[in-house]
Structures are given as structure tokens and as C-alpha cells.
Design goal:
The protein is globular. The chain contains twelve helices and 13 strands. The structure holds nicotinamide-adenine-dinucleotide.
């Protein structure tokens, strides 16, 4: 196996791993270990080329530093990508080679599942390293916890935007009824919200209609619905120069990662008086759920809910400061996180 350090000044360590017998071609990026081991999932994708994979792993690992610090976890930021098609190129040999590479980093990077990976894959990786979470029967599916974190965040943001946390009667456009989106839809329906939904998956749409009396709209129509809240729970970069001008919502709060296509899009939202709950704060429930497994800690039954409530309180403070100082919320959130990381460094 060849492990090559790449000189990337924005990150503590970035390694390129090649294992020709196992067919592995992977990158591990450790953005920061100031607050703890660099934790973040492993993604396997058929990247267009090496640069495409490198851009993804650098962006995602930085995002994990933000997310982990925003959730006040004793974790830094890291991420890994395997270059290849998970449907056709994932083999036990390849996963074991990846596990061996993780082991050489001595715990500075802790892996878990991300796109293209399953708990069973993590079990294969665990044959070669202890620095892996998301194992079968361990912390389990994070999606319900992520959804609860987004739900609590949405209530906090609603307090700032509408003067009340009460979501009764609020019209909410929900993009993506997957693992997180469907749980969120359930909570919002219970809270008395009116749901307008879109997805590429017809079965999920049918379920939302039957279970939550949701109205279904087309994939592009979701942006222009006359709603109070937009909840993007499918793809990143959906808040961009094309969509922001056509949004009619008063606030955005969703689960998807990297919602802002560019940092300028945060300012674009603010200029349109649309309150934005930063994604890396609102969607922290998933990593909160996994953190004890990653760190080998055991907590009492109230720990998870307490951490989710703390996440909502953090968002409350961020939005208060953003509205008081007229600085877009994602900038306030990044400043607060940078200060926490600097303090720990
Ligand atoms: N699962 C978690 O705990 C977690 C934690 C943090 C962040 N996230 C992020 O939240 C988002 C949703 O995660 P998930 O686990 O529910 O994923 P998922 O794959 O289960 O769900 C995504 C849903 O979006 C739908 N979709 C795909 N393209 C679409 C489009 N163009 N328009 C509308 N819908 C579309 C899919 O059909 C699917 O139903 C992702 O961006 C993920 O990275 C998830």
C-alpha cells in the first residue's frame, strides 16, 4: 500500500492511499484535531477524476470541523472518500485496505458511514482498525435523531422569524422524503404544519400524502411555493443564485449538508430577508448520535436529548447575534465555531 501526504495548507493532514492488489484509491482529509480526533464518514463515489474527489473530501472534512464544534462534541473534523462505484467496485479487500490505511493514522481520523457505505461495510473495515463507528447494532440509524435536531432548530428559527416556536398552520415546503425528510415530515405534521413536498421517489410521495395529508409538487416547483418555511432535506447547494431570487419563504431550515452553493448565498438570503438556520448547526443530530460510539463513551438516557436541546440553544444564540449585528447567520456560526476551535488549539 502506498500512502502519500499531500501538501494542503488548509488542512492538518491529507493522504492519498493506493493499494493496487485491493484496487483501493482513496483520500483521507483531517481538517482539524484541535477539539478531538478528526471524525467524519467515508463516502464512496464514482468521481469524475482525482481533483473532483479531492475537492469533495477537503470541503466535507472542513464541514465536519464546523458541525462537530457547533454541536460541542469533543471531535475534530475529518472525512474520507474512496474513488469508485460502490455498486460495482466495493469489495471486502478494498474495504480492508481502507481500514489498514485508517489504522496507520493512529486514531487522528475516525471513520463511519456516509454515501455508498453501510453498517456491514464498517464491520469489514473494523477487521483492520478500531477507529471505525457506525457498526451493526451500535449507534444505529442516525436519521430520526437528525430529524429531531432539525425540528428543534426549526422551532427556534421560527421564534426569531415569526415570534413564536409554534408551527401550527405554518406552510412548509419539504424537499426530499428520505431517511431524514420522512421523519421530519412526521414531526411537522404532528406539530400542525401544512406540508408541501417533492421527491424523485413516487412511493415516498404517496406515503406523505396518505400519512401527512401533504400536497405534492414538482422538483423545480418546490422553490416557488407560497410557504413560510423551506426545509431542504435532499441535496446540497440548493440555495444558489438561481433559487434564492424565486423563494417566497421567510426562513430556511433543513437537513442537507452544504446547502449554500457559495458563501455569498448566505448574504443573498439575508438581503431577501430570509432567515437561514446554518445547516452544520441544524443537522448536527446525526453526529451527536454517533459521537459516543466514536469516542468509546457511555452516557445516561438523557444525554442525547440534552445534546439536541443544547444544539437548539446554540442556534438560538447564533440567530440572536445575527439579527442583532446584521451579519448573516452562517457567518456568525462560522465565527463562533472558529473561536471554539482556536481556543482548543
Ligand atoms: N441521515 C442523516 O442522519 C443525516 C445527517 C446529517 C445530514 N444529512 C443530510 O441530509 C440529507 C438527507 O439525508 P438522508 O439520509 O435522508 O438521505 P436519503 O438519501 O435517505 O434521502 C434523500 C431523499 O431525497 C430525494 N431526492 C433526490 N434527489 C432529489 C431532488 N432533486 N429533489 C427532491 N428530492 C430528491 C431522494 O429520493 C431521497 O428520498 C443529505 O444531504 C444528507 O447528507 C443526513
Amino acid at each position: 500500500m502506498h500512502i502519500t501526504d499531500l501538501p494542503i495548507s488548509t488542512h492538518e493532514r491529507v493522504v492519498f492511499i493506493e493499494d493496487l492488489p485491493g484496487g483501493l484509491s482513496a483520500l483521507i482529509a483531517i481538517h482539524s484535531t484541535a477539539r478531538g480526533p478528526g471524525a467524519g464518514g467515508l463516502r464512496m463515489r464514482d468521481y469524475a477524476d482525482f481533483d473532483d474527489a479531492l475537492t469533495d473530501v477537503l470541503r466535507l472534512s472542513h464541514g465536519m470541523t464546523l458541525k462537530n464544534a457547533a454541536a460541542d462534541l469533543a471531535l475534530g473534523g475529518g472525512k474520507a472518500v474512496i474513488i469508485g462505484n460502490p455498486a460495482t467496485q466495493k469489495t471486502p479487500e478494498l474495504l480492508e485496505a481502507f481500514g489498514a490505511a485508517v489504522e496507520t493514522l493512529g486514531g487522528a481520523y475516525r471513520t463511519a458511514e456516509d454515501m455508498g457505505m453501510t453498517p456491514d461495510d464498517m464491520a469489514v473495515i473494523a477487521r483492520k482498525t478500531d477507529y471505525v463507528a457506525g457498526l451493526p447494532g451500535a449507534s444505529g440509524d442516525p436519521s430520526p435523531i437528525t430529524a429531531r435536531g432539525v425540528f428543534l432548530s426549526m422551532k427556534v428559527a421560527a421564534k426569531h422569524r415569526f415570534g413564536s416556536e409554534d408551527l401550527t398552520g405554518k406552510r412548509i415546503a419539504l424537499q426530499g422524503l428520505g431517511h431524514v425528510g420522512m421523519h421530519l415530515a412526521d414531526m411537522l405534521h404532528e406539530a400542525g404544519a401544512k406540508l408541501i413536498v417533492t421527491d424523485v421517489n413516487e412511493e415516498a410521495l404517496d406515503e406523505a400524502v396518505v400519512s401527512f395529508n401533504a400536497k405534492v409538487v414538482g422538483l423545480e416547483e418546490i422553490y416557488t411555493q407560497d410557504v413560510d418555511i423551506f426545509a431542504p432535506c435532499a441535496l446540497g447547494a440548493v440555495l444558489n443564485e438561481k433559487t434564492i431570487p424565486v423563494l417566497t419563504c421567510k426562513m430556511v431550515c433543513g437537513a442537507a449538508n452544504n446547502l449554500l452553493a457559495t458563501p455569498e448565498d448566505g448574504a443573498r438570503l439575508a438581503a431577501r430577508d430570509i432567515l437561514y438556520a446554518p445547516d452544520f448547526v441544524a443537522n448536527g443530530g446525526g453526529i451527536i448520535n454517533a459521537a459516543p460510539e466514536i469516542l468509546g463513551e457511555t452516557h445516561g438516557p438523557d444525554w442525547l436529548e440534552d445534546k439536541l436541546q443544547a444544539l437548539a440553544s446554540n442556534l438560538d444564540a447564533i440567530l440572536t447575534q445575527a439579527l442583532d449585528t446584521d451579519v448573516p447567520p452562517h457567518e456568525v456560526a462560522e465565527q463562533l465555531v472558529d473561536a471554539k476551535v482556536a481556543l482548543a488549539a
